[in-house]
User: What shape does this take?
Amino acid sequence: MRGRIVIAGIGHTAYGKQPGRSTVSLNLEACRKAIEDAGVGPGEVDSLLVKVPTSKVEMMYGQKLAEAMGLEPRVGGVWDQGGASNISMIAIAAMAIEAGQCDVALVTLADNPRTGTRQAYEKAWGDDAVFGWFSVVASYAMIARRHMHDHGTTEEQLARIAIAARAHGAANADAQLRKPLTMDEYFMSPWVVEPLRRADCCLISDGAAAVVVMSAERARKRGVRAPVPILGFGQGNSSSDVPLRRDLTETKADVSARTAYAMAELGPKDIDVAQIYDCFTITALMTLEAYDLCPRGRSAEFFEEGGFGVDGRLPLNTSGGLLSETGMPGLQLVLEGVRQMRGTSSNQKKGAKTCIVSNQGGIMHTHSTLILGN
Amino acid sequence: MEDAGIETARDAFWRMIGDGRLHFQRCDGCNNAWLPPREDCPSCWSPEWRWEEASGRGKLVSWVVFHTAFHEAFETRLPYNVAVIELEEGPRLISNVVDLPDSGIDVADRPVSLTIETDHGRTLPRFKLA
Assistant: This one.
């Protein structure tokens, strides 16, 4: 299946605040731009896969969106796996197309927690609220602390990831936060839940992103302008809540990556550029390790100063990632992967032939991986 | 308790905490021990299990310090810690460590022991460094 399915078009809304916009309208705008980019009409779309908006979960959301877009998709629905949903839905679309279940799929994501409610990110964790156990950031901090103990991970290592993302975001005209970050500023950033600082945390953003998926053959016949082949994908789910994981520093990101590498017939050394889900800096660091892109606990030595830059050892999150471009849960990273393969990124890695993209959801409960080529 | 007369595993766990005793569940089929309370063994899926009282000894797996209150009830106690505790019998739970030193000291894997406290009108299983 390697290379037989492509991403034919990408689209996104403005990132940041979108007051008064429903997620349906945001999704629709991103989808309209994605099909325009692919050069196909709404009538050709016969599959619609959508991530449920995190801040307001609604039953049958996929059908509600399809109605708003006048679609009666052959394959449709919502995939409830948090941020991992996006790449997983691209994989589902690819497999459905390969199996003859549909021809042109839209995969889309929208949410509006910035002007709406942030409750999903600040909520209590069941009965443990009596201990003060609240929020998403605290669970990631719990993992980060154990990672520091087990692997000697330092705040400087976390800072490097934030600094790289912020530098790339500053050069991206579409980014929500366009302010570079220095090491000194990182250490002045206040604790949110120690050991994570404000600068370790992603943005809260309204917005939407969408991609069009079809076969390479169809893209060729339809004269799609800049199709980007999907070389591999994979998934892995650790599923258990953070306290119950025997090793807090292990997720199933490695399983997901191995599946994707095998399908792509590539290894970590073949990867030119990486878009790694960075809801928190620790997430990106652990994913780089799980993907075998750097040795465990050694990202600082491995990626020396500037190592995550466009001319560095591995250009990372070249659109600014969740820390700087938009805090939306993940599909925007696929869009940046597509731009890198097309050669149109605002932080373009010259001659990049492969891009790996990670998506994850919950507190590293779910994971999916995508490898793009050109 | 919404359905009068039916005590769930979760209700029983907190009722026994209210009596000052920390229990976990142990499977009759495969001997697996676990928390938080649930209806079936998460290892062999057996519905047959029993309560076992914890010794109260355990170790600290990881901890965080909140500098932000996500609920008004915790605003006045910032900064406060939340920890993952592993009981010597194996089950894990979220709790607080009552005598955690200032930030900067690595206390992961340190032994801890149970201390029952009352807070916000509820009896809670907390831990102190052993």
